[in-house]
Design a protein that fits this description.
Length: about 120
């Protein structure tokens, strides 16, 4: 397989994550080459956390794992789309199914759906 162009994004490339059945965009994250290889090897979505500066398996603390059903690569080989089965019903760490749970309404952001889980309960330390 031809490699992705990690050199174009200073080692990080965007990964758009969609529900494989509904096409709903669940989240956008970043991958480095290690996350890419882990995803290909395991079939579970791995990302590079820019805030924690480390590799992470989506769902490692919440159990809301993403099973990769299909991967699409753009024409420049510097962006991917992971089409996934989202286990646990939510992709967003704030408890919503999608990280895109708000819409713009004039000058406001309005929440457009109910949360699936309580992050305070799921991410207890």
């Amino acid at each position: 397989m031809q490699a992705l162009r990690f050199d174009k994004g200073d080692g990080l490339l965007p990964a758009i994550v969609q529900d494989h059945r509904t096409n709903e965009v669940l989240m956008v994250a970043y991958i480095n080459e290690e996350a890419w290889q882990k995803t290909l090897a395991t079939g579970k979505a791995h990302y590079w956390s820019r805030s924690r500066n480390k590799l992470w398996l989506k769902g490692e603390s919440s159990n809301h794992v993403q099973l990769v059903k299909e991967i699409l690569v753009d024409c420049d080989e510097d962006t991917v789309i992971y089409r996934v089965e989202q286990l646990g019903g939510a992709a967003c760490h704030k408890g919503y199914r999608s990280c895109f749970f708000r819409r713009v309404a004039g000058d406001d952001l309005v929440i457009k759906e109910a949360p699936v889980f309580d992050p305070g309960e799921v991410y207890k330390k």
